[in-house]
UniProtKB/TrEMBL annotation:
Domain HIG1: 3-95
Presence of the UniProt keyword Membrane in the record: yes
UniProt xrefs under Gene3D superfamilies: 6.10.140.1320
Keyword Phosphoprotein among record annotations: no
Name by which UniProt lists this protein: HIG1 domain-containing protein
Transmembrane regions: 31-50, 62-85
Coiled-coil region list: none
Single GO BP term: negative regulation of apoptotic process
GO cellular component assignments: mitochondrial membrane
Record's keyword terms, sorted: Membrane, Transmembrane, Transmembrane helix
Compartments where found: Mitochondrion membrane
Domain of life the protein comes from: Eukaryota
Length: 95
């Protein structure tokens, strides 16, 4: 891009680092990374418990692990939607 031209998408300038973009996104939607971290935690715990599952069948253990991980992610996204709705409609400063 030549120095005299305006960028087409100013929010995606090359001068900002990936870390600052990631932090900005996390600040805008805080429950998405919480859901991702919870998913990773449930999967990690499920893999740990896989070794000590006892007489439980593998398929049943994997189904329980999948349901727990999906439940955590859906719960986090639901909380995020409710948070953004409250922030936009209830706590919005009057203009």
């Amino acid at each position: 891009m030549s120095p005299g031209q305006e960028p087409v998408f100013p929010e995606y300038e090359t001068e900002t680092s990936q870390t600052s973009k990631l932090l900005r996104k996390f600040k805008e939607t805080p429950f998405v990374p919480i859901g991702m971290a919870g998913f990773a935690a449930v999967v990690g715990y499920g893999l740990y418990r896989l070794k000590h599952r006892g007489d439980m069948k593998m398929s049943l253990h994997l189904i329980h692990m999948r349901v727990a991980a999906q439940g955590f992610v859906v719960g986090a996204l639901t909380c995020g939607v409710l948070y953004s709705m409250c922030r936009e409609y209830l706590f919005k400063p009057k203009e």
